Amino acid sequence: MSKNNKKLYTGLVIILLFFAFVLVPSFKKESQISDSIISPVKFAPNTLLYDALVQEEKEGRIDFSGKMYPNLGFFVTDIGTLHSGNGKNLIYYINGKEAAVGVSSYKLKDGDVIEWKLE
User: Fold this and answer.
1) Where is the Transcobalamin-like C-terminal domain (predicted)?
2) What's the pLDDT at 34?
3) Which pTM value belongs to this model?
């Protein structure tokens, strides 16, 4: 193999590595953002997040499932296109901060933004 061919192959490998490590992760971030669903919800004062989820599901606006644990409350395992598994669980955030209580304990407040993440 000539020196010019070695330089060409080396250059191609560097370009491929650049695409693999720099550009590909940025495409994933964009697709995650496009998977978000924003759905304003009307609720009565002191409505629990769990009750709001049940109401939204009854009205056909979301799909979710999970499991009720005695003394702990309801744990959401699936919501929309997000599904727990492979060592990841659904965690919800309230106004950008990880929730400190479960969905069956959190009382919604006017203006709350609830975000679900697989972690």
Assistant:
1) 64-119
2) 42
3) 0.68
